[in-house]
Amino acid sequence: MSTRRFLFVLGSSRPEGNTEQLARAAAEQLPGDVAQEWISLAEHPLPDFEDLRHDSDHVRPTEGSVARLLDATLAATDIVIASPLYWYTLSGQAKRYLDYWSGWLRTPGVDLKATLAGRTLWGVTALAEERQAVADPLVGALRNSAAYMGMRFGGVLLGNGSKPGDVLDDTQALALAKTFFAQPAPLARYTFETD
Question: How many domains does the chain contain in total?
Answer without folding.
Answer: 1
